[in-house]
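Below is a filled-in request sheet from our internal design queue. Each sheet records the structural input a requester submitted and the sequence that came back. We keep these sheets so that new team members can see what a complete request looks like end to end.

REQUESTER: design group, bay 2
PRIORITY: normal
MODE: inverse folding
CHAIN LENGTH: 168
BACKBONE (tokenized):
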């Protein structure tokens, strides 16, 4: 994993708690696969609000091109970061203990007009897809990354075509 303050990072992967890591690591695995420099750290909206403000305010100046933010429950982190920076924020609802992440999803997706958060599915698929969406966004201006994304999709198609049912 990249260090907490990686000056070369293009993407910030932040989460409300270390307990979110099991889900959020699915985003960092994708970024690693595509060789995109990232930093990963805990930035809790509720337990360290001043750090969150600092992180959001500094994001553009530090050269971050995207922020993937995961949180569970009253998941304010993605929306607050989106309020603090023009850098695009990709929100991942982390499954919560009592409401299975539906609370996280609604907290992240229901942003007021003017401050968007691109919101993904609850859990691992959402974390991976958030990173893939970052890859697709960066690939618009990066031919090599676009080639890698095509290869990733082609591989996925081959895997699906090779599937047999019932599974062995
Ligand atoms: C949120 O509260 C975090 O994003 C996490 O999903 C949830 C629970 O945090 P812990 O109590 O496990 O630290 O802020």
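RETURNED SEQUENCE:
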């Amino acid at each position: 994993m990249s260090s907490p303050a990686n000056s070369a990072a293009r993407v910030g992967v932040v989460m409300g708690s270390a307990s979110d890591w099991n889900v959020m690591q699915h985003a960092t695995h994708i970024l690693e696969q595509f060789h995109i420099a990232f930093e990963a750290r805990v930035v809790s909206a509720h337990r360290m609000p001043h750090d969150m403000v600092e992180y959001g305010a500094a994001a553009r100046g530090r050269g971050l091109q995207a922020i993937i933010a995961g949180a569970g429950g009253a998941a304010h982190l993605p929306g607050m970061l989106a309020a603090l920076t023009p850098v695009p924020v990709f929100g991942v609802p982390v499954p919560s203990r009592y409401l299975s992440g539906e609370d996280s999803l609604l907290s992240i997706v229901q942003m007021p007009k003017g401050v968007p958060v691109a919101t993904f599915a609850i859990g691992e698929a959402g974390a991976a897809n958030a990173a893939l969406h970052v890859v697709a966004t960066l690939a618009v201006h990066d031919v090599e990354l676009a080639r890698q994304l095509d290869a990733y999709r082609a591989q996925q198609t081959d895997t699906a075509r090779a599937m047999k049912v019932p599974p062995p």
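SHEET NOTES:
- The pocket of 5-O-phosphono-beta-D-ribofuranose is lined by residues 15-17, 19-20, 44, 46, 71-73, 94 (CB under 6 Å).
- Strands lie at 11-15, 38-42, 66-72, 89-94, 118-119.
FILED BY: M.R.
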